[in-house]
Each structure stands twice: as structure tokens, then as C-alpha cells.
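Example record

The entry below shows one chain as it appears in the dataset: sequence first, then C-alpha cells.
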Amino acid sequence: MRIRILGAGVAGTAAAALLAAAGHEVELIDEDFAPPALGTSLALFPPAQRVLARIGVLDAVSAGATAPREGRLVGRGGRVLATLPSGDAMLVPRPHLLACLRRALPSDVRRRRIRVQDVRPLRRGADVLVGADGLHSLTRLSGWGEGARARGHGMTILRGITPLAPPEISETWGGGWLFGITPLTGGGTNWFASVPEHRAPDREGDLAHLREVVGGARAAIDTVLEASAPARTTVHGLFTVPPVRPVREDVVLIGDAAHAMAPNLGHGANTALSDAAALATALDSAQRIRPALARYAARRHLVDQGWRLGSEAMLRAAMADGSSGGRDTVLGAAGRVLARCPRGARRVAGRVPSDPRVGP
């Protein structure tokens, strides 16, 4: 089967590796194949780790990962609401994950570096076109129309790294803002923040505004921000994709192109890897393409939309302002219950503090 994949991020590269290994003729297209500029971390849970094992890169990815045992959820005023286990997740710098996936690509995968402005010609000569082209997917806009355009949430995401060890592992839900701290492979700190939409002329101004919003709330946050620098910080808006069924004719969407979600459950990369594996399984030995793609949609659509909706609900809870006192009371009570039931806590957690990786 001739399969053309647009987008060489996590979803597209994983799909290319799996489909080529199954004997398909695969072409992978991207504008530049450049690695991410900043090595912020992604949380990968056991289902995603099983996909990495299927590709043959789990050991290599794990070698560059860190695996904290737990993290604290902290509410307004510094009150610890819950201590959550990591759900057996590992934290992986995005550049390292992509490098491992790209090294796993079979040599017969054709890589083509072009800037695509119209996806329709890409369907010619291909049995399947896979749109793995991210949040602002041209594939999705072309096949699903303007109603499928990504939507903003009126928030700004900042994320960065520092060379200092993290003072703690936590996610703080303030009054209308969020700040997370996780370890970075090699001993540094990975941090992320969500605030109401605000853009300064440069990243120095963005960091200054963040310090105005969250500064003084907690000592650990101040420590991280004191070590932060514009060159090690990225800033972007928060966008998500409205619900779309991921298959039309011989075109299929995977990863953020299909269901870009809020970052608050930390599952964007996980669903991307699961999509890639499910697509490869659906197309394995398929005699007819469209029934195979329908099987893929049946397997992944509701699951991915569940994560999308859950992430958006968590976003609203995390960013609550006036109602945060009641929210913190409820979460504190839930945290005390989970502390007395570690096995249940692991099931509920299924996550470490989230990584806001949804950007333009």
C-alpha cells in the first residue's frame, strides 16, 4: 500500500516507522524536519510506552527520560490538595523522543522536505493520505472545512527549562493561573504556566508579566522563575481542535491534527502514539482501504475525544478564579481519600503534572 504522511512530528514519525515495518511504501513529508528548539518534557504513560516498544525504541527513549514517583497538586494559598503518583509515567524531552523515533525509521521510508500549501495534490498517487500536520492542520482544513479550524481559549502558555534542580515536583492552581514544575533529564527543571491571554513584544516581557501574575505566590515558583531566561522560554496561545471524525474517504487524521487538546491531562503525545499504532494495525493486511480506515476511526475516535473533553474540563478547573476556594475544598477532600487508597490513586492519577505543549 502506498501511504503518504504529512507531518514529521511524534504522530507522523511513529506512524511512518510502524507502517513501513509492516511492508507499506511510505513517504514522510515535512517542511524542514528540524528538531524542536527547546527540550521541554512530555509525559509518556504505559500505553504510549508499549507503542514505543512495538517500534523498538523504548529502551533508547527511557535512557534519556526521568521517572518521578509522585507530584503534588497545590491550591490557592499554597495548600497541598493532593499527592498524586506518576501513574508509571516517564518524562521525556521532546527532542530526544523525536530523535529516537527518526532513527527507527526504516531506510526505505522516503523523506521529502517541502512546504505544503495545498494538500489536494498529495492525494494523487497515494492509497492513503495521513494528516499528521498538527494543530493548524492543512489536511483537516482542506477535507473538513472552516468549521474544523483550531479555536483559541483566551490563554497564554509559557514553558521553559532551567539548569537548576527542581525545588519540588508540583502543579499549582492559583486564582486564574497555573504553574507546574517537573524534573528535566540531566538534573534541570522543566516548568510550564498558563495565564489569561497576554502577549508582550518579546519573551523578556512575557517572563516579566508572568512574574507579576504568579510572583510571591509560592517560594518554589519564585525560585524557578529567578533561574528562567528568555532564551530558554517559549510562549504561545492555547488552541484546541473541535470534535471531528478523523476519516474522510482515503484521508485520515492522527495526533494533534485530529484532536489537539488542552494540556491539562498531559496526554497529547500519548494519544498521538496510540493513534499511530492503531492506524498501522487497521491497515495491516487490509484488502480494502476504506473499511480499514473505518476500523481505525471506530477504535480511536471516542477514546481521543474523551481525552480532549477531559482535558478541557481539567483546564477549566485549574484556571478557576472566583470559585477556586470551593474547588480546593473538594479536591483536598478527594486527595485525602486517595492518600488512604494508593492503588486507586494510581488509577486516578494516570498522569504527572501536565505539560502544555499545544501551540501554534
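Notes for this example: Confidence is low (pLDDT under 50) at residues 342-360. Residues 137 and 257 are 5 Å apart (CA to CA).
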